[in-house]
Amino acid sequence: MLGTMRRLWQTVRPIRFRLYLGLLSAMTASIVALMIPQVLEFIVNRLGTDATAATIWTGGAIVLALGIVEASLIWLRRTFAVAPSTTVEKQIRVNFYEKVQNLPVSFHDGWGSGQLLSRMMSDINQIRRWIAFGMIMAVTNVVTISVGMVLLIRSSAALALIFFLAAVPVTIIAYRFNRSFSVLSRLSQDQNGDLATTIEQSVQGIRVLKAFGRGPSALEGFTEQAEELRRTEVRKATAIARFDMFMFMLPELALGVALLVGLHLTASGQITTGQLASYFATATLVVGPVRMLGMLLGQAVNATTALDRHYEVMDTANEITSLEDAAPIDRAAAKGAVRFEGVHFRYQDAPDHVLDVIDGVNLEIRPGETMALVGVTGSGKSTLLQLVPRLYDVTSGAITIDGVDIREMSLLDLRSLTAVAFEDATLFSDSVRDNVLLGADPSLSDAEAEELLHLALRTADASFALELPEGVDTRIGEEGMSLSGGQRQRLALARSIAAKPAVLLLDDPLSALDTKTEETVTGRLREVLEGTTTLIVAHRTSTVALADRVALLEGGRVVAVGTHAELMESSARYRWVIAHQAEERRRDQDIETLTGELELRAIQEEGR
Ligand SMILES: Nc1ncnc2c1ncn2[C@@H]1O[C@H](COP(=O)(O)OP(=O)(O)O)[C@@H](O)[C@H]1O
Ligand SMILES: [Mg+2]
């Protein structure tokens, strides 16, 4: 805990001075408050003497002044601590986002998005509260309680002991409460998150739910989750109620006993009335900090947990980084010759007994050549493509572009040399234009960008975008216009074309198109991509046949390379894969058509 807090202290370096000022204000405020009972004692002890009226006026004025000073100091504490701590919070959050962005895909394979979300939002929130409030108040309360105890003992040691006996359990209970309550809070947050995920998934999957008649059972599952959340909320409320009872009962009880004993002590002349009055006034002031201290200790532990979770992500080593002194690459002069040399790769979480997904690939793609990558499902085609822009790093062997090992280029250079159209065609909630021009050269003028956009759309047969309600400015993606799978795929393809890479990696980008359209697109691609080295995962014979050469991937190895015609003649395995895939594809399309019809019917029924 101390180590974590020390590290936090480093993080808040820029606002340390203001935190000190905040602490100073807070401590002065509580000392000022503690002086008020002393004045009270003075007044009460003078009651009934001849100086009464003057004393009351002076004393009253002093108390009023002290009150005003205290209030101003509290205001100062907030000014000093709150605004700067939100700046630090923002900075922590931005750093976290940057870190998560930079971490390689393998990191994201292992972490759920919900986990990252909660670290990003609630953990950092908790850290901010600790910086702005907890840290300062914990120190202040310790000081207040210590000074308060001294003053109480000065009034009467016996009475101080009574107060102390109540204060200890109150602190412990408050600490315990805060700890267990935070477990409940976290649970309720997680359940809230789960509920949100369920809603999101069923909204996104609404067609499937409807088409397969799973609505009622989805509702059942949802009801159960909602009920769990309700139970947690009830547990939270019960815990608060019980806690509040103790928190108020114990101190009141102690003060009741103190009153009895105190009256006795005063009657027997052991303490003055003024001392009794100041005792009660002081005790009332110190009760608050005593209650709060336990809470703050709990908050400290919670903040430590939050910080540890935060630092865990921040400390994850990023193994895919740029070389410090990478030689710059001249994009215009790049030819795009790609070589795989004895490339091995295995996923981090792969069990020991399985072979490497990429198990020694040797392959050379000549500058400007279009090479088709063929292989059965699971043979490692997608994995191989992702190694080129270093979304994953090879476990051994090397990949070079124009003779330079990709690990010796800066990541930015490498990724401007390459572009990928992924299998799953991810689009952002943004306009068609911004989606397609995502990877385009940012230094293009508006007119050039516009021209590039249209060229890319035309090449990818995505001209449907021009007919959308607002043309290329139509918002698509989750928060916008829904597109069909084939439409999304074509926009993703257009995006990779607009990036104008030297090496283009296409992971089955035409799978959702019908054979006729696919042929048109392939033909246009060949024209537009003249000079672009292209590695394309393909299923259909028509696409494969158009490629300059074909590589057959089998169990993570390239087992045959040649033109389509050559392989058809020389490799029985190749003939089998091609025939098998044609059949698989027909089946897939049948299923797609069927689901499409079911969806349509469900929507029509809904409309009635
Ligand atoms: N992110 C991942 N983590 C772990 N294993 C993976 C991951 N992606 C793919 N695999 C595994 O690697 C193998 C090859 O997958 P993939 O490259 O997608 O094959 P293909 O694209 O040829 O169908 C499969 O067995 C798959 O289960
Ligand atoms: Mg694949």
Shape: elongated
Helices, by number, come to 18
**Percent of residues in beta strands:** 5-15%
Roughly what is the average pLDDT, rounded to an integer? 89
Structural class: alpha/beta
Please bin the fraction of helical residues: 55-70%
User: Largest sheet at a glance?
Assistant: 6 strands, mixed
Number-wise, the strands total: 10
- SSE order in H/E notation? HHHHHHHHHEEEHEEHEHHHEHEHEEHH
Associated small molecules:
adenosine-5'-diphosphate, magnesium ion
The parts where pLDDT drops under 50 for at least 5 residues are none
How far apart are the termini? Answer: 62 Å
Order of strands side by side in the largest beta sheet?
6-7-8-3-9-10
Radius of gyration: 36 Å
Can you offer a commentary on this structure?
The chain contains 18 helices and ten strands. The protein has 608 residues and is of the alpha/beta class. The strands form two sheets. A six-stranded mixed beta sheet has the order 6-7-8-3-9-10, sandwiched between helices. A four-stranded antiparallel beta sheet has the order 2-1-4-5, covered by helices on one side. Helix 13 (446-459) packs across helix 14. The protein is elongated. The two termini are 62 Å apart. The structure holds adenosine-5'-diphosphate and magnesium ion. Magnesium ion binds at residues 381-382, 423, 507.
